[in-house]
Design a protein that fits this description.
The chain has one domain. Helices cover 49% and strands 16% of the residues. It has 3 helices and 3 strands; from the N terminus they run H-H-E-E-E-H. Helix 1 runs antiparallel to helix 2.
């Protein structure tokens, strides 16, 4: 005796499996938004910290915190799709500039279900840079090598 399969009807196994597959695909998309936002905020935090260390403009005083507050929206731009607009907080300690960026994803996926990751969908990253005067160092090294060359020429 053979059983006939009816074409066009979904079996019980498939009706249970398909919602799980769709849920997992949606979670993968949400996780990629989260990871993308985390990578971009890490990059932008470092860019702001580095540019704040080289932000001397002519005769204006060195103000890395003011630079970060002024340029944060320009650096962030519109690349945070799927995430909230980031907030950047600068901290200075001598010549070190540290910028902490915070944001979160816009969705509340799996908010009431067991698959939701512990904590929230927020993320933060920090970038740190040290103020150095590269041109001054290069000039000093060039001058020292010139003096060394003159001293060796005198000895001959």
């Amino acid at each position: 005796m053979t059983m006939k399969r009816y074409k066009g009807y979904m079996t019980l196994e498939a009706s249970l499996l398909m919602p799980m597959v769709i849920c997992i695909l949606a979670l993968l998309i949400y996780f990629t938004y989260y990871l993308y936002g985390r990578c971009i905020i890490s990059e932008d935090s470092y860019i702001l910290a580095f540019r704040a260390t080289i932000s001397d403009k002519g005769g204006s005083p060195y103000d890395p915190e003011g630079y970060v507050f002024e340029k944060a929206s320009d650096v962030a731009g519109k690349k945070y799709f799927g995430s909230e607009k980031p907030q950047f907080v600068p901290e200075t300690n001598g010549k070190d500039v540290r910028v902490v960026g915070k944001s979160g994803t816009r969705h509340r996926a799996m908010g009431r279900y067991f698959l939701k990751p512990s904590g929230s969908w927020g993320f933060e990253a920090a970038g740190r840079a040290t103020k150095r005067q590269y041109t001054r160092h290069i000039r000093i090294l060039t001058r020292l090598s010139d003096l060394g060359r003159e001293l060796t020429d005198l000895g001959e």
